[in-house]
Amino acid sequence: MSYYVIGQDGSKYGPADLDLIIQWINEGRIASNTTIEDSATGQRSRAIDMPAINTYVASAPKTAPPPTMPSQPVYTPPSYPGYPRANDQGMYASRQPIQIDSHLTKSIIVTLCCCQIMGIIAIVFSVMAQSKASSGDPSAVKDAETADTIGNWAIGLGLVGGILYALLMFSAGAMR
């Protein structure tokens, strides 16, 4: 005789002969309420209701519930006096907004008048500096300094480019 074991999800396992069914019962894979299908007749019933299997299911060792794990203590990070603690968003609750000059006006003027690419980069750093300063992040000062440096370089390149252009136009006009 061979049988199919019907899993809780409806999957069929087998065919399995009586020796394999007994092994699965002893391993705890088949319980008394597990659905078994006779491969010859296609009849399905609980394992305890099948005459060829019920004696093995009834005498099978009862499986103990899985051991419970002792609960783990909740980790609390150490508290260091004088250091700010991060809140749920990863921000520091004790930070106050920082007052800085983000050089946004200079960055916009550079973009409109001198060097657009460097002006746009300076605007990005200026806006980052403003955002960080409003949240109290001290790295806002570095971003503002970067925006100022890029703006100064753009003004310098714009002046040099303008002078070279004027000299080129003057020399071209003098050659006529």
Explain what you see.
The protein has 176 residues and is α+β, with helices and mostly antiparallel strands. 45% of the residues lie in helices and 10% in strands. It has helices spanning 18-27, 54-59, 104-113, 116-134, 140-174; strands at 2-6, 12-17, 35-38, 44-46. The chain has a 4-stranded antiparallel sheet with strand order 2-1-3-4. The protein starts with a strand and ends with a helix. The mean pLDDT is 80.
Mean pLDDT reading: 80
Number of strands: 4
What is the beta-strand fraction? 5-15%
Classification by helices and strands: alpha+beta
Run of helices and strands:
EEHEEHHHH
Oligomer: single chain
Give the C-alpha Rg: 40 Å
Biggest sheet: strands, sense, closure?
A: 4 strands, antiparallel
Tally of contiguous helical segments: 5
Blueprint (SSEs and pairs):
Layout: E1 2-6, E2 12-17, H1 18-27, E3 35-38, E4 44-46, H2 54-59, H3 104-113, H4 116-134, H5 140-174
Antiparallel strand pairs: 1-2, 1-3, 3-4
Helix pairs in contact: 3-4, 3-5, 4-5
